[in-house]
């Protein structure tokens, strides 16, 4: 069970700014085993996603992952519902994790 504490809330706010630096995440072909499994599962569920980023933040042991998804498929959904969809897709993988951080975004559509 995940619990938000003052420390985790501070980490969360710190990680939001770090999330914008996700551009250093390797491309899909260089993802490691666990990262690749998560990526492929999410790509299958969210085929219209503009961006899916997975990062092992456990130091390489595959126990904690950070997930970022940007897709218009979240339009009209609360953040809680968006995160529930992701945890439902990854429920089998989450069983073997120590933790997961989920960040979602609805991309701005350019109407030209």
TrEMBL record:
Which SUPFAM superfamilies does the record cross-reference, listed alphabetically?
BolA-like
Pfam family name, one: BolA
Cellular component per GO?
Answer: mitochondrial matrix
The record's annotation in InterPro entries points to: BolA, BolA-like_sf, Mt_Fe-S_assembly_factor
Q: What family does the database annotate? A: Belongs to the BolA/IbaG family.
The protein's name in its UniProt record: BolA-like protein 3
Q: Whose protein is this, by species?
A: Macrosiphum euphorbiae (potato aphid)
